[in-house]
């Protein structure tokens, strides 16, 4: 690892970060304690993927939705 290598590079660039984020979301959804809070967000991403939106767009919408989860995810 070089001193100038960024965290982005160390995580494997876009492909590595996508893989990491997918796994984190998957684990959150499987968790019986926190999973229900994320299920609505998963439905949003699934619908977007079924409509062939590009992955970066799905990720951006997921990020925005997560930041607004208190407004869109009901307990």
Describe what this molecule looks like in 3D:
The protein is mainly alpha-helical and about 80 residues long. It has one domain. The protein is built from 5 helices and no strands. Helix 2 (about 15-30) packs across helix 3 and helix 3 packs antiparallel against helix 4 (about 55-65). The chain starts with 6 loop residues before the first helix and ends with a helix. The model has no long low-confidence stretch (mean pLDDT about 80).
**What structural class should be given to the helix and strand makeup?**
mainly alpha
How much helicity do the residues have?
Answer: over 70%
Q: Count the domains.
A: 1
Shape: globular
Cα separation of the termini: 44 Å
DSSP E strands, number: 0
CA radius of gyration is 14 Å
How do the SSEs run, as a string of H and E? HHHHH
Residue ranges: pLDDT <50 for 5 or more in a row? Answer: none
- Amount of beta strand: under 5%
Overall residue-averaged pLDDT value: 82
Tally the helices: what do you get? 5
Main sheet makeup: none
